[in-house]
Amino acid sequence: MSYTVPEPKLFACTQSQALGKEIAKAYGADLGKVIFSRYSDGEFQPSFEESIRGARIFIIGSTHPGPEHLMEMLLMLDAAKRASARHITAVMPYFGWARQDRKDKPRVPIAAKLVAKMLETAGATRIITMDLHADQIQGFFEKPVDHLFASTLFLPYLRKLKLDNLTIASPDMGGSKRAYAYSKALESDVVICYKQRAKANVISHMELIGDVADKNVVLVDDMVDTAGTLTKAADLMMERGAKSVRAITTHGLLSGSAYERIENSRLEELIITDSIPPRQESPKVKVLSCAELFADVMHRVHHNTSIASKFLM
Length: 313
Fold this sequence. Notes:
Blueprint (H helix, E strand, L loop, with lengths): L8 E4 L4 H11 L6 E5 L5 E5 L7 E5 L6 H16 L4 E6 L18 H12 L3 E5 L14 E4 L2 H11 L4 E5 L5 H11 L2 E11 L2 E8 L6 E9 L3 H12 L4 E9 L5 H7 L4 E5 L11 E4 L2 H12 L11
Helix pairs in contact: 1-8, 2-3
């Protein structure tokens, strides 16, 4: 007797509707219908408007600030669990609160661990995400985590540019592993910036380790928030004789005056993905879609085929 695996159902949180539709299109499916009832005080309630009993479902939603985005994902997971879905995968292109992955001083939380536990308690049986701020966050989960790399999008783009004297740069010591992986794939040199912070989002001092004279430099990072680090690094490298400086960062938070900083900086361009909806357009900001990457991985997960190629630089 032959058995046909039923197709999964795809849903999207409100903050990721645009990306959710693109993922569903790439998957070859339609987004399922969810309605959100909202109270005047801001409380909201999601409701699946179709049966999901016994189904595999994917809930797409990045959990970038503010906290209502995370709460929305948690409520969607809980609703799916209580509606007897068989497998519930949280598809989180951007895993928020990931910068709080350890205690870096006394009396502070480890928010990434807390978020992991809340997702599991709410009902997630699997997590699919991309470029976590710290690889060890995968260990915060007891459920399977598929950790994808946006390098599968960025490397083809960089190769098309055909930059001579290419050098990969990390804007801080923590990103050196990522920079070395890109440099290996592109057969280029590596330089690293050493920075000291006065407080969160404020850099007091930055130094460059390595030579960038007459080089086309590409800064690589997992996220860009205020763009203070990237723009300061770009200016420093141009002062040291670089021919050009670009930046690739997976998650474009771009909060506060980030767009203004980028446009006034010596960055040639900033390349990001659409894991987070861009707040505005900028001539210096290019957005690459991650929809096909996630659709492909979701298809492989559903049909129990290997996704090892998506983990490689």
